[in-house]
Amino acid sequence: MADYNLKDQVSDKYSLRGRVFHKIREDILNGKYKTGEELREATIGEELGVSRTPVREAFRQLELEGLLKMVPNKGTYVTGITQKDVKDIYMIRSLLEGLCARLATENITDEQMNEMEENVYLSEFHESKGHYDQMAQMDNRFHEILYESCDSKMLEHLLRDFHQYVYRVRKMTLSSEKRGKASNLEHREIMEAIKAGNCDKAEKLANLHMINAYDNMRKNGLIEMFDQDDSAKK
Amino acid sequence: MADYNLKDQVSDKYSLRGRVFHKIREDILNGKYKTGEELREATIGEELGVSRTPVREAFRQLELEGLLKMVPNKGTYVTGITQKDVKDIYMIRSLLEGLCARLATENITDEQMNEMEENVYLSEFHESKGHYDQMAQMDNRFHEILYESCDSKMLEHLLRDFHQYVYRVRKMTLSSEKRGKASNLEHREIMEAIKAGNCDKAEKLANLHMINAYDNMRKNGLIEMFDQDDSAKK
DNA sequence: TATAGGATAATTGTATACAATTATACAGAA
DNA sequence: TTCTGTATAATTGTATACAATTATCCTATA
User: Which of A106, A112, A143, B22 is the most buried (most CB within 10 A)?
Assistant: First the structure.
């Protein structure tokens, strides 16, 4: 029973259903399955070499995660993210990442602090070299560390979900050169505020980090991308 | 496809699985199934007159909602809420209810505003008469209206989940006389701030409302209740 | 041609069967 | 007694079978 959460991740990665779950999830986030696309249980099952049973169980969970929508007796469809959704998510994340940074200031372990520092340095290196893929990975990890450091399973899972949910957007955002540089600087400032034990500053900077990320997306027209494939949705 | 959400509720209430889902969920929240208790798929299925298949699908969703924990090849257990969880939830809710109130100030419809006013008046009436059950219902509805008024499906579902998640606690909280009165007053103030279009005030008051609710719980020793049945968890 | 109706096919929803894993009970040895 | 190993039972994990619902296509008719 040890560990439980508001929205526990699917933990048994090595059961059939666990593999199916993670595979479909990945394929949605990577864009293999497009918004509005219908997923057939039998087809997915064949592709992955399993029967419909584990596929359906995975579908049900992905539905609750908001990536799929199961319409009774009709089919299962990939859900899209609207511009409004993205805006709302960043509004919510701004507050929660702020809270997370505040809590992290009080609860971060030495080990986590070290990894965060290392992350900041490495990311700046990759930025200077133009390694955008690695930067995206570093960015991912920075936030993961932050989430782990706040010592709140509730908050951690909540933020992780949001983080993944906007994955499709973020990938592109970071490849914009200027944002990459600015983002790195903001990470550094947050890291230093946490290290200095200044929770107010850490909270404010984390708030701002999200607002800036969103503003950047908007300015670069990266949001208009959404609400487009909706034609496929009927 | 019309409607999709980060964490959509289980919508097909009238399918077998939908009924199973809502029944089990209710039985957990009402305390019929206790923390740490093991739920057998076959047993639940028999009780509800269905096979294991819909039961398992419901389990998988309840797991993601955090009410159940499925341990591979072992069993499914009712998860508990720890004191820490309650604290974290109220911290998070404080921020999000604040945001919600701010957005509601801008987006509430006349109809919703009327229902909210009516709710406040009715709740004060029930308080004066000592109708605690009705008050609890009114309290529930007040927050529901607030969530609906913010015009953000994301935030609405998030808050609804949290709201339900601490249902077990809140029931008792409101039966404490003093808190009932104070809670009503706070609802009135929030309602009036929204009506006056003062979003800053609405946000602050909603923040405070959650903090007060939590403080009250703590003062009255209603939190020590948790972390108790944990003996069953091994 | 365009439309309505109905047979057929395809897909989802649920039940059941079987495999894999884990729990239980009991016998025997230290 | 207490521990260990093994056989048995119970439970979960997955596959398959069948029922219910929905989509598709063809035909007949205006």
Answer: A143
Task: Give pTM, 2 decimals.
Answer: 0.82
Lay out the sheet containing B75-78: strands in order across: B38-39, B75-78, B68-71
Q: How far apart are CA B68 and CA B71, in angstroms?
A: 10
Please identify residues in chain B, positions 172-211, with a C-beta within 7 angstroms of any atom of strand D.
none
* Regions of chain A where pLDDT drops below 70: 1-13, 171-176, 222, 224-234
Cβ B155 vs Cβ B147: under 8 Å:
yes
Comparing C-alpha atoms, which of B17, B9, B5, B25 is closest to residue B161?
Answer: B9
Which amino acid is located at B143 in the chain? Answer: H
- Cβ of B129 under 8 Å from any chain A Cβ? no
Three state DSSP letters for chain B = CCCCCCCCCCCCCCCHHHHHHHHHHHHHHCCCCCCCCEECHHHHHHHHCCCHHHHHHHHHHHHHCCCEEEECCCEEEECCCCHHHHHHHHHHHHHHHHHHHHHHHHHCCHHHHHHHHHHHHHHHHHHHHCCHHHHHHHHHHHHHHHHHHCCCHHHHHHHHHHHHHCHHHHHHHHHCHHHHHHHHHHHHHHHHHHHCCCHHHHHHHHHHHHHHHHHHHHHCCCCCCCCCHHHHHC
Q: A194 vs chain B: nearest CA distance in angstroms? A: 20
For the ranges A81-85, B183-187, B197-201, the lowest mean pLDDT is seen at A81-85
What does the pLDDT look like over A120-133, one tens digit per residue?
999 999 999 988 88
Kindly provide the residue ranges of all beta strands, DSSP E only, lying in chain A, ordered along the sequence. 38-39, 68-71, 75-78
B187, B191, B192, B196: CA torsion to nearest 10 = 150
